[in-house]
Each structure stands twice: as structure tokens, then as C-alpha cells.
Amino acid sequence: MKTIFWGSGILTMCFLILIIGYILINGLPVINLTFLFTDPIDSGRSGGIFPMIVSTFYVSFVALVVATPLGVGGAIYLAEYAGEGKLVKSIRFGSETLASIPSIVFGLFGYAFFVIYLGFGFSVLSGGLTLALMAMPTILRTAEVAIEAVPKSYSEGSMAIGATKWQTIYEVILPAAIPGIITGVILGMARAIEETAAILYTVGAALQVPVSIFDPARPLPLHLYTLATEGISLPNAYGTAAVLVILILIITIVTNILIDRYTKKMMGR
Amino acid sequence: MPYRIEVEDLNVYFGESHILKDININIEKNMVTSLIGPSGCGKSTFIRTLNRMNDTIPTFRKDGSVLLDGNEIYEPKIDVVDLRKRIGMVFQKPNPFPKSIFDNVAYGLRIHGMSDKDVIANKVEESLKAAALWDEVKDKLEMSAMGLSGGQQQRLCIARTIAVEPEVILMDEPCSALDPISTTKIEDLIHKLKRDYTIIIVTHNMQQATRVSKHTAFFLHGEIVESGLTDKLFMEPEDKRTEDYITGRFG
Fold first, then answer.
1. Where are the beta strands (DSSP E) in B142-241?
2. Residue A91: what pLDDT?
């Protein structure tokens, strides 16, 4: 029995290494400073992916700026104020359903609502907002778990010296829950960065660096999709994929290090 | 001598269960009062009624009156936040915040509107000295409080409590998670603090009650069986049940 579980664990690892290895082997040779820091030429047949890297950060940033306060706010409400009523169950159910909607449906909604109805056009804003809807349930759920995991003794200690509920939440509970909340935000961000379907209909397909939030953009996954499906340049598609994978790895590793440092400082280890 | 706290015909319920029954007790100013009794007899519930910490439990109900300096603490116009500033509490398990040692004490000052850095720093030092912790931590105030030993953490919690200048300090078995040396330090501290504060301490340790307190109340099944001067209660108990408990026949 143990061997079977060991085997499935190892197999999972192998697939991960295989996929990342394959992408890197095919992609790394393409990557150099020119590839990273110049505009694409001829729809991406040659040249670089600088506007796509900028687009990726820009769109994800908009998504996080919108989704983080909503998600964390909702989590605070659910964990600290709501208790166990019908409303809470509905909110939780809604959030979980939202998380399981296929991303292409988000894309369609984003197109109908943000692009057409609200008139934001194909833009960083439309794409960012669509991604925010997708990232929010992840952030909410992770933040809620993080807040609930804060020992009750902390808030009791705070209440017992005459802190209000809000002071207790803001000064004691949230700082203690920050590592978990950040993890949620990063998970949400990773989801936003790697998402393609949701932005397919919302962000446009510009090949220039977006400046205003109303400019169209082309984040890395979308560029990769276009390069591959339209047969523009497979090597550059691998290069783009490698950059995407490396970006996500860097973000994950850096936040883990920062969270670790913060936790150590907080817990005095 | 006027009483700091007067409790009259207090009954406490959690949902259907009747936890405290007809509690009557007066707590004298600047004295230490011990509450003893077996586990589950309502001692903790009782002190948590005094600073209204039970308010957070949805099924909590009470009747009877609790007066602090002659004023009913359960009156609607009473500000609970202000009440808890006046009646501080130290918990069974040391529960410092995951902040620096300095911020643990400064937190209470800041939330009550103190903003001058020097004033706060002075007050933090004063409180840590009063809690007999200053010499051990003065060089590492910026370190996390979670890195302190259990006994130090508990004294930090006491410092945090006295920083906001309460009139009463409730202590819920403050030494039960500590080693004997830390316990001695906390007991010495209680002797020092009673000059300025009225202290109510829940304890399972009867020697501790005789060491630290002038008055003792014996709780059993949610009632006060007997209360009075500690010496008298332990030397010549009036009630058979008190005698059985203090001689170790049950509990």
C-alpha cells in the first residue's frame, strides 16, 4: 500500500519536472535581453515580448487592487462578524460557485459587462476586472481560513484591555493572519497571471506597451496562445511560456521567503 | 470600608444550563481575593462575568446585579470597552500578541488614545518594571514577545494589563501553565500589585490561595459555599463541603 502512495507521489513530481523541464529546454534558448526588453516584430515572429510582460503585471495589478480588498473584506466579515446564518451560507456558497465557474464563462461575462455594457472596451481595465472576479473567491477563502486560524486567545487578550472589536481585528488579528492572507493573494495573483480564457475576450490584443488602463494589452498567456494557435512562431511561444513559468516561480519563491521572514520575526524564532 | 465590587443575587445561564446560582460576594478594595473550587464549578465564568467577557457568547444570560464602585456594570449606558479598561484580565495560558515586547504593552496605550512617543515609552518601562520584567527584557524590547519563556510571557501580560491603569485585575489561574520558579515570581508580583489594584485570582492551588490572598471564596457546582478571610476559611471552615475540599477529600 505504502508503495502505491509513494509511487503516486513520485509520479506527480515527475510530471511537474517533465513539464517545466520541457518548457525550459525549448524556451530558454530563445530568452535573452533583447527578447525580454524589446517590442515584438511582425506579430511576434521575431523581436521580444516586453509589452506582454508589462501587460501581465499591469492586468494582474488591476485585478489584485480590486480583488484583494473585496476578498479580504469579505473574509473579515465571514470570520469575525457573520456568525452562522443563512446569509453567511449564501455568501460562502456563492463564493465557492464563483470559484468553480469555467474561466471562459468569466471571459464571456467580462466581454458582455465590462467591454460592452460599461463601455471599457478591450482594455487593461476590462481584463483586470474580469480577472478580479476570478481571483476574489480564492483570496476570500484563503483569507477566511487564515483569520479563523488566529488563536482566540489573541482577541480575548485584546478585548480584555478594552480594545474595540475593530481595533482587535485591525491591530491583532490581521497582523497575525497576514502570512495566510498574502498566500491567498499570491494564489489569486498566480491564477490571474496564468489565465488566458478570461482575458481572451476582454483585454484586446495590442502589441504595444499599455499606458492607460483603457489601453488594450496582451498578457503573456494570450501572446503564447496566439503564437502557438496561429502558427506564428513556435520557438517564441516556448520562450514566452518559459518566461511565464519563471515569473510565477519567482513570485512564489520570493513571497514564501518574505512570509517566512515575517513569521519568524513575529513569532520570535 | 467601601467595596470595589459588589455582586448581588447573580445568576448566569448559558442557554439552558444554569452555571452560577445566587452568587453574593463583596470584593474589598486593594485586597487579593482568591476563588477556589473544583474544575467546572463556575469560577472562571464568574470572573468573566465581572469584565463582561461572557458577552461574546451568544447564549449568555444573567440576572442579579454586579456593581463596580457602586455602579451597575450591566446597565445599557455602560461602555463595555471602557469597563474592560477598568477591569483588566490575565488569562490562564499566557497570551501575548505576536508583536514586539514593546508593542505588546504599548498597544493598550495606543488604543486608548495615547500618541506621544516619549509618554508611551515611559509608560511601557514603568509597566514592565511594575510587572518585574524590565530587567530581563530592557535590551530586547523590539524582539517578539513569542520568544519569551512562559513565565516571562505571563508577566508581560500583567504589564500589558496594568499599563492601561485598571482598578481591578482578574487573574484566571495565571500560574497553572508555569513552572514553580515562575509561579513564585508571579506570586511576589501579586503581593506588590495589591497596593494599587484590587485583585481577584482564580486558583486550583490552595497553597497559592493561602499565600497570596486575604479573602477566599469556595465555589462548588456554581454556588459560593463559603467565603471570608482566607485564614479562617482554611483553618476553621464552617461548611462540611469546604472542609472536605480543602483537606483534599474531593476535587
1. 168-172, 198-202, 215-220, 223-229
2. 86
Please answer whether residues B212 and B187 qualify as being in contact, where contact means their C-beta atoms are separated by less than 8 angstroms. yes
Q: A111: Cβ–Cβ under 8 A, 6 or more apart, which residues? A: A126, A201, A202
Is the minimum CB–CB distance between A162 and chain B shorter than 8 Å? yes
Q: Give the largest Cα separation in chain A, rounded.
A: 67
Test mutation, B47, B107, B200, chain A, max A CBs within 10 A: B107
Quote ipTM for the complex. 0.89
Q: Is B95 on the interface with A (CB under 8 A)?
A: yes
When CB atoms are compared, the residue of A160, A164, A176 closest to B51 is: A160
Task: Name the 3-class secondary structure at A76.
Answer: helix
Q: Does A171 touch chain B (CB under 8 A)?
A: yes
Domains defined for chain A, CATH in brackets: 33-267 (1.10.3720.10)
Query: In terms of DSSP H, where are the helices of B67-116?
Result: 80-86, 101-111
Q: Which residues does A109 contact at the CB level (< 8 Å), separation at least 6?
A: A130, A133
Give the mean pLDDT of A4-14. Answer: 92
Q: Is residue B251 predicted with pLDDT exceeding 60? A: no
Rg of the Cα atoms in chain B: 18
Average pLDDT over residues B15-33: 94
Distance CA B150, CA B131 (A): 14
CATH 3.40.50.300 fits B3-246, yes or no: yes
Cβ-Cβ pairs closer than 8 A, A with B, add up to 81
How confident is residue B1, by pLDDT bands cut at 50, 70 and 90?
A: low
- The answer to whether B45 touches B54, Cβ cutoff 8 Å, is yes
Where are the alpha helices (H) located in chain A, listed in sequence order?
2-27, 33-37, 50-76, 86-100, 103-110, 124-148, 152-160, 165-168, 174-194, 197-200, 220-229, 234-267
Helix (H) or strand (E) holding B5: strand B3-14
Q: Is a pLDDT exceeding 80 seen at residue A7?
A: yes
DSSP-derived secondary structure letter, B56 = G
**Residue (of B201, B190, B178, B186) closest to B155 by Cα position:** B186
The one-character DSSP state at A146 is H
Q: Do residues A134 and A191 make contact, with C-beta atoms less than 8 angstroms apart? A: yes
Record the cell numbers describing residue B243, joined without a space. Answer: 472542609
Q: How far apart are CA A198 and CA A106, in angstroms?
A: 5
Question: Cα dihedral angle (A212, A214, A219, A224), rounded to 10 degrees?
Answer: -130
Q: What is the mean pLDDT of residues A129-156?
A: 94
pLDDT mean over B219-241: 93
Helices A220-229 + A174-194 axis angle, to 10? 20
For the purposes of burial, counting CB atoms within 10 Å of the CB of A10, is it exposed (0-12), middle (13-18) or buried (19 or more)? exposed
